[in-house]
Design a protein that fits this description.
Layout (H helix, E strand, L loop, with lengths): L2 E9 L5 E10 L3 E4 L6 H9 L5 E7 L2 E2 L10 E3 L12 H11 L4 H11 L14 H14 L4 E5 L7 H13 L3 E6 L12 E6 L2 E7 H4 L3 E3 L8 E4 L5 E5 L4 E2 L9 H5 L1
Parallel strand pairs: 3-8, 3-9, 6-7, 7-8
Antiparallel strand pairs: 1-2, 1-4, 4-5, 9-10, 11-13, 11-14, 12-13
Helix pairs in contact: 3-4
Length: about 260
């Protein structure tokens, strides 16, 4: 059974909706792609049950996410909230957490050794660089052995070589992987993954990543539009195979607005 969001709205204050009428199903490896500030992280947090102010329903394997408690190896994430705020070493905290959820600490340390070296295991999480923190959080999620592994911007703060290595690590991991990102460089390596576009709180799709790679962006109406994206400004963006600028030419979806301006 899939992760399913049904008519989901989410907000943080005064019903200024961050997500609007989201209806999606996730049962395969999936990329959630969109500009920064589009609502991707809120979508991830909604799937995990971290968003308090919402209406609509979120199900994981047919169970409402708000009623899931004390269930190990169902879903894991690299969001910082999952890491206990402690003055103890990364090694002590992660070993304790993975023992609680029946995770794989040896796999965690293997990732850390290959990406950063053993030294950071003895440090407090707060002492790490942003890139090191991201590696620790990614490794913790992957080592959880969960059915669903939800990774928010897993390449942020990593140098180019480590980005590619981390993508390979994610691809090798068992379970259904969900990656939220604003960058496009890795799409060519994930042709069989599903993909949803998130723009200004609205979610479009699903598509196959290989389909998206063929699409072009235009601010002018086209007859063969595969997707039509409505912006708050009242203008629209059209994705088609024939007209506009190739989506694959954008290294980040943050440039979407530059293209259509």
């Amino acid at each position: 059974m899939p992760i399913e969001l049904i008519d989901l709205y989410a907000w943080y204050r005064k019903r200024d909706y961050v997500l609007k009428s989201v209806n999606i199903k996730i049962s395969n490896n999936t990329v959630i792609l969109g500009p920064n500030g589009s609502g991707k992280t809120t979508l991830i947090r909604s799937i995990l049950g971290f968003v308090v102010s919402k209406k609509g329903r979120v199900f994981i394997d047919g169970i409402n996410v708000d009623s899931i408690t004390s269930t190990t190896r169902l879903i894991a994430t690299n969001l910082r909230e999952v890491l206990i705020n402690s003055k103890q070493s990364v090694e002590s905290v992660v070993k304790f957490m993975l023992k609680l959820i029946d995770g794989d600490y040896e796999y965690f340390t293997d990732i850390i050794m290959r990406f950063t070296g053993r030294d950071i295991l003895k440090k407090n999480f707060a002492e790490l660089s942003e890139g090191q923190k991201k590696i620790v959080l990614n490794a913790l999620a992957l080592a959880s052995r969960a059915k669903y592994i939800v990774l928010d911007e897993p390449f942020e703060g990593l140098d180019p070589a480590k980005r590619v290595a981390m993508l390979n690590e994610i691809q090798k991991a068992n379970g259904v992987k969900i990656i939220s990102t604003h960058v496009t460089w890795m799409l060519k390596n994930l042709p069989d993954w599903d993909l949803y576009l998130v723009v200004e709180g609205c979610v479009y799709g699903p598509l196959r990543v290989s389909e998206l790679e063929e699409l072009k962006i235009s601010s002018k109406p086209v007859e063969d539009a595969v997707l039509t994206i409505k912006l708050k400004s009242g203008s629209q963006v059209y994705l088609s195979k024939t007209t506009g600028i190739p989506l694959s030419s954008l290294d980040t979806l943050d440039k979407l607005y530059e293209v259509i301006s």
